[in-house]
Amino acid sequence: xxxxxxxxxxxxxxxxxxxxxxxxxxxxxxxxxxxxxxxxxxxxxxxxxxxxxxxxxxxxxxxxxxxxxxxxxxxxxxxxxxxxxxxxxxxxxxxxxxxxxxxxxxxxxxxxxxxxxxxxxxxxxxxxxxxxxxxxxxxxxxxxxxxxxxxxxxxxxx
Length: 158
Known about the structure:
Elements: H1 3-29, H2 33-44, H3 50-57, H4 61-73, E1 77-81, E2 89-93, H5 95-103, H6 108-117, H7 121-137
Antiparallel strand pairs: 1-2
Helix pairs in contact: 2-4, 2-5, 3-4
InterPro entries: HTH_MarR-typ, WH-like_DNA-bd_sf, WH_DNA-bd_sf
Domain HTH marR-type: 4-136
Pfam families: MarR (PF01047)
């Protein structure tokens, strides 16, 4: 097998692992990884606004708004317009939302981060540089991507 084949097989395994975990998360909790990350962000920043969520998790405001729409339809969050500034809409978890976070399995990135942080500093730097180089080789450096390990549609404009 050629070296590039070995690399492509490894990349495919990473993509497959993310896909399998995303399916497990969805099956067990009924949530996608981005939905869970948004719920977690709201849980630590009660009353947060869409723009702040988007900035904190590195997704576009439009993507976050779509996620919030789905979460609101499932009664996991509550949006409330400010009484002092009608342009501001705060977002809070409902009891169902709080329970959904408690019941959901840990996101895959938590597992990954724990193992990554256990590596020596030089090895962390080497892995980051290698993955950045791979992204550049795949013409993927300008693709909007949050630090969420999930397979799905890619939003190429932020």
